[in-house]
Amino acid sequence: MVKIAVLVSGGGTNLQAILDSMLFGEIKNCELRAVISSSPKAYALTRAQNAGIPHYVVDKKNYPNRRTFTDAIVDMLTDMDIELVVLAGFLYILTSRFTTVFEGKIINIHPSLIPSFCGEGYYGIHVHEKVLEYGVKLTGATAQFVTKDTDAGPIILQRAVEVKQDDTPLTLQRRVMEEAEWRILPQAISLFCEGRLKIEGRIVKILD
Ligand code: GAR
Q1: Which of 12, 21, 107, 206 falls 20 to 30 Å from 34 in CA-CA distance?
Q2: Residue 73 is inside which H or E element, if any?
Q3: Could you give the angle at which helices 125-134 and 169-176 cross, rounded to 10 degrees?
């Protein structure tokens, strides 16, 4: 069983999708060891508690800077022997120490079709605001490995979602979650835990 930890900052609907998929046996060979939240107020913590998963708060406010904050998380993950780190709505950029220690072992879900609408400042609802401002007709979600450059790692899975004429950022966010994020994130985790992902440079091959 691959030992995984999920990092969250907010509502945790992607965490819920992971928990539900585990319950239905859709994520194979995986043991969810910990949910770690950057905020004590995150509803994701309640979801972890309801599912009986150990959950911890590493409160961003208690650290002078991003380095000390993410170092504390790296130390926890290392102590717990975590083999895969999942960023499920974790809204902080990782340091190069983090991405080096867990090279090829961090998966992020992003609410757009990368390389569009990504990078610094593109997170959460802001992504959908920018998509609507630009007027693209298709958006979606991307599950990818995390490297030192923001949203630039090798892509594991993507799924497209139609943008409707009367969408607001909130309606679009909900459709992207339902039709794309909550499907491809559990799939990507399962593929990793089954040993079916091979990274070759920028390309991720899915093995049979
Ligand atoms: C999700 O839409 C996720 O893709 C996004 O934050 C939201 C968290 O929702 N992540 C990013 O924008 C990362 N760049 P959730 O807490 O309900 O899963």
Answers
A1: 206
A2: helix 66-79
A3: 110
11 lines ligand 1 (CB under 6 A): yes
pLDDT of residue 14: 98
pLDDT averaged per 10 residues, the chain (length 208): 98 98 96 98 98 98 96 98 98 94 98 97 97 98 97 98 98 98 98 98 97
Q: Look at residue 8 in the predicted model and tell me its pLDDT.
A: 98
Q: Is the pTM of this model over 0.70?
A: yes
Binding site membership of 83 for ligand 1 (Cβ less than 6 Å): no
Contact predicate 165/136, CB 8 Å = no
CA 104 from chain centre, in angstroms, equals: 14
CA–centroid distance, 205 to ligand 1, in Å, is 25
Query: Which of 7, 13, 108, 128 has the most ligand 1 atoms within 8 A of CB, as the residue to mutate?
Result: 13
Q: Which of 2, 10, 8 is nearest to 125 (CA)?
A: 10
Superfamily of domain 2-206: Formyl transferase, N-terminal domain (3.40.50.170)
pLDDT for res 50 = 98
**111 within ligand 1 shell (Cβ under 6 A):** yes
What DSSP string runs through 18-44?
A: HHHHHHTT-S-SEEEEEEEES-TT-TH
110 tagged catalytic: yes
